[in-house]
Amino acid sequence: MSAKILPIKIYPDKILRQKAAKINRLDKKIQRLILDMGKTMLAKEGAGLAAPQVGESIRLIVVNTKNGVLAMINPKITRRSWSKEPGEEGCLSLPDIIGQVKRSKKIKVIYYNEDNKQIKLSAAGLFARVIQHEVDHLNGVLFIDYLKKKGLPAKFREQTLR
C-alpha cells in the first residue's frame, strides 16, 4: 500500500475555517491518511500539514522533522512561552503569500502517536512555530489572521479577518 499525494484545499475553501473534530478511534483510515498526508507534505515541500488542508476536518497534523514525518493525533498545546518572536510564514493553502507572524518561542504539547500512546513534548524555535501554525488550522485559524490588513494582497483585504 503506497502513499498518494492528496490535493490541497486552497483558501477560501470553507473547511479551512471549521473547527476540526477530535479523533476517537485510530483505525486503518486514519493510518492511511497519515501516510498520504506525510507524502503530500514532503512532495509540496511543506514544513507541516493539517488534515483540514486535505479535506478531512479531524484533529490530525503531520510535521516535517529531521527524523522524518511526525504525526500528531489530537494535539493540544498546553503551555506557550510568554516570550514571542516574529518569523516568516507561508501556507500550502495560501499559495504565494508570505507574512511575518509573532509566535511563542517555546511550547509544550500533548498528542497521541500512531501507536495510540500519549506523548508530551517540548518544542522550540521553528519546530514550535510549525506546530502552532498547524494546530491553528485545526481551530479554523489561518496565519493571515495575524497579519495587518494593509499588508495583505487585495483579494484578502475585503474579507473579515479574526
From TrEMBL:
One of its GO terms (biological process) is translation. GO terms for molecular function: metal ion binding; peptide deformylase activity. SUPFAM superfamilies: Peptide deformylase. Pfam families: Pep_deformylase. It comes from the Bacteria. Binds 1 Fe(2+) ion. Its EC number is 3.5.1.88. Fe cation binds at C91, H133, H137. Keywords: Hydrolase, Iron, Metal-binding, Protein biosynthesis. Its cofactor is Fe(2+). It catalyses: N-terminal N-formyl-L-methionyl-[peptide] + H2O = N-terminal L-methionyl-[peptide] + formate. Belongs to the polypeptide deformylase family. This is Peptide deformylase. It comes from Candidatus Falkowbacteria bacterium CG10_big_fil_rev_8_21_14_0_10_43_11. The gene is def.
